[in-house]
């Protein structure tokens, strides 16, 4: 999706992808990565996710990346955090204690931004991108994240013909095609969530299946 699409979604507050609670898979599976408390965690396309606060609460340093400045401003305002804001190359850097958010284009990230990141968490980035951009996104992760970096990835899978994204369907086979070779892949969980209370809107849109999958990734 192009920048204008996401800027418009945020400006109109069309953010159904935003979760009002910390993600349950994050809480259930994060400890399995066995990371030290001081580890810096990349959260790509972070929006105003409360998951960043949860990671901070585990003692981690968090580095979010978000295109829409409104999302970043809302995050700090809604959580009563007062950031220091500076210009760092192509990004506006918002900083508050162990939290940093780079406001700008994810694809402008370089190794110099992420050399301290030993982990990443993706609940809403991969599934927000159409197919050709998913391949570009993973290739960029491969290029800028250090070796031995670990990740927790959450995806959605459904019959793509039954609904246009975002969020887009990302099948298990595609995850493996995108990440194999550069990452070790461990499938942790797969759940059919179509009839969960929070997903009534997907039933209304005609989906016959909606699965959430969780993966642990380790960069080779």
Structure explained in plain terms:
With 220 residues, the protein is of the alpha/beta class. It has one domain: Rossmann fold (3-Layer(aba) Sandwich), CATH 3.40.50. Helix content is 29%, strand content 27%. It is built from eight helices and nine strands. The protein has helices at 3-11, 24-29, 51-57, 69-78, 111-114, 131-144, 172-179, 200-204, and strands at residues 40-44, 61-66, 84-88, 91-96, 99-103, 117-122, 150-157, 183-192, 211-219. The protein has a nine-stranded mixed sheet, sandwiched between helices. Strand 6 (117-122), helix 6 (131-144) and strand 7 (150-157) form a beta-alpha-beta unit. The two termini are 29 Å apart. The model has no long low-confidence stretch (mean pLDDT 92).
Task: Characterize this entry briefly.
The protein is of the alpha/beta class. It contains eight helices and nine strands.
Question: What class, by secondary structure content?
Answer: alpha/beta
The overall pLDDT, averaged over residues, is: 92
Spans of at least 5 consecutive residues whose pLDDT stays below 50 are: none
**CATH-level-2 architecture:** 3-Layer(aba) Sandwich
- Specify the CATH class: Alpha Beta
Q: Provide the spatial order of strands within the biggest beta sheet.
A: 3-4-5-2-1-6-7-9-8
Q: Quaternary state, please?
A: single chain
Q: What is the fold-level CATH name, i.e. the topology?
A: Rossmann fold
The CATH homologous superfamily is termed: Vaccinia Virus protein VP39
Number of domains: 1
Tally of helical segments: 8
Shape: globular
SSE sequence, one letter per element: HHEHEHEEEHEHEHEHE
Computed over alpha carbons, the radius of gyration is 17 Å
Largest β sheet strand count, sense and barrel closure: 9 strands, mixed
